[in-house]
Description:
The structure holds two protein chains of two kinds. Helices cover 80% and strands 0% of the residues of chain A. Chain A has 15 helices and no strands. In chain A, helix 6 (120-131) runs antiparallel to helix 7 and helix 9 runs parallel beside helix 12 (215-231). Helices cover 75% and strands 0% of the residues of chain B. Chain B contains 14 helices and no strands. In chain B, helix 3 runs antiparallel to helix 4 and helix 6 runs antiparallel to helix 7. At the A-B interface, helix 1, helix 2, helix 11 and helix 13 of A face helix 2, helix 3, helix 10 and helix 12 of B.
Amino acid sequence: MNMLPVDVAITRFRRDLTIAAVLRALLVAAAIGCCVAGPVFGHDGMFVLVFVGAVWMLLSYRSMQGTRIAADSPSLIAAGEFERAENHIDTALRSFSLFRTAKLLSLHHLALLRHAQRRWRESALLSQAVLSQKLGNLNGLARTTLLLLADSMLQLGDLKGAFDAMNRIYRYRLSLGEALTLQMLQLDYGSRIGAWESMLQGVGGKVQMAELMPTLNAARSQAFLSLAAHKSGRLDLASWLRKRAQLLAEPKDIASDRPILEEVFRQ
Amino acid sequence: MESVPLFLDVHTLLEASQPRPRVSWTQFMIAGFVLAIFLSWFVGRTSQPPQMQQAISTLIGIGLAFFVGSVAFAGFVGVRRARAEYAAVGAVEELIQLRRWPEAGLLLQTMLSRPARSPFSRAQLLLYLSMVLARYHRFEDSVTVHDYVLHEIPLDDATEHAVRLARAMSLLREDNLLDADRAISELRRASRGMESAGLALVEIYRDVKTGHPAEAVEMFESRLQVMRKQLGHRAADVWALAARAYDLLGRTTDARAAFENATLLTPLAEIVRRYPEVEPLSKTYVPAPAPAEVA
């Protein structure tokens, strides 16, 4: 598979954002100029205004096409069709867009793709590139990118980076799906720093949340909680959580990315 | 005396939520644009005094600017409304996931009582409506919604399979065994060998309900891995039904173990609410004890 290099994607993304901003400013300035100086130039000014309007509409249409191409990528990534997703993202990143949103979404999708491909460093770099932009009212994009960044940092073993990303997420109001992902990240992070007691705070609510997760994450969350309960000497709770996790998935699958969880099933 | 409208009245909601045809502004936009260009060109060619030409040009300019602005404003308002509807659909989904059924029902009643903006949102809301109705044990109404969705709305294969499964389960719950059996046969034909944990669950429930525990146990034992993977915590349903089937066969050790696994994943009260056939087991077997922190 021909992979789009991350540094090239980020450079192209920044260059395109600058060009689009300059073009927008030029078109707006030309339109204002036509209105203000219209009486001086007569109907020639009118023609320029019409031309500016036509250019704006044409570029908006092209931007919409780019947005449509980008919109297909998440479903392709979820279906495991990485090559097609890569092509879609590449096309979306190459196409011109007058608006920032399409470009930001495309770069975010590339971060999502690299995360699904388990290329944690690249995913983290792309997430940071998205977050370095002013996201304004794109709160949803900021939240999901921060969750991606936190997970990539955890996988890279950069606990400080993961902590910073999770801290930034607290500024936002999360959807249920995002809250579930955050809980999973918090448990993973807690197990890496040995914060067993804090992992067990509000354990009843955490178990209920785990029940809403996809099967493997539900099993893994309860395995993390079981580990914390065992380390804290709450053996009944540890055993109950371990049995539940085992009913949901095989221990080797639960511990596949998180070797620390092997300890749970040795108890 | 004035009659009180029924909460989540299916026929009323199906009627009221039909999206209204909307006027497309595209042709007006193109026509306006062409007219402005033509007028502009025409004014330049006429032999009117320069002051007059200037005044007309300014007027066209203002008109064009107003026109472009109003199109942009209409687009902005449309996008905002579509986003609000999308957010409301997401809110219903979250309420259902959190099992906050009364709030989900109220929100559905409000949203489906007016024309939906997009057919896609309406389809989503109708699927959620069928879930809420099933939760309130209004299985006949739930089947009505399923039938409407299956006949009137184009669905992708996975969604259609899920709707047909939910319909078969509702038919079983309302003891409409003949239609349920037909629905299951259709599902089996349509699945074409694809492993569906949902279908296995429905078949096990049918076998338990119709007094065929041996078939239920056979299905359970052969499909357990798939059901475990696909159903997550809802695997408790399968364990509970398997416990009932083992018990009917007199395999008490297996029944006890299956009952314990079921109650380990889901509280007994919730299992009995979903499958009243499991209730007799609570008199014979002991549910798995939950630690105080999570009880």
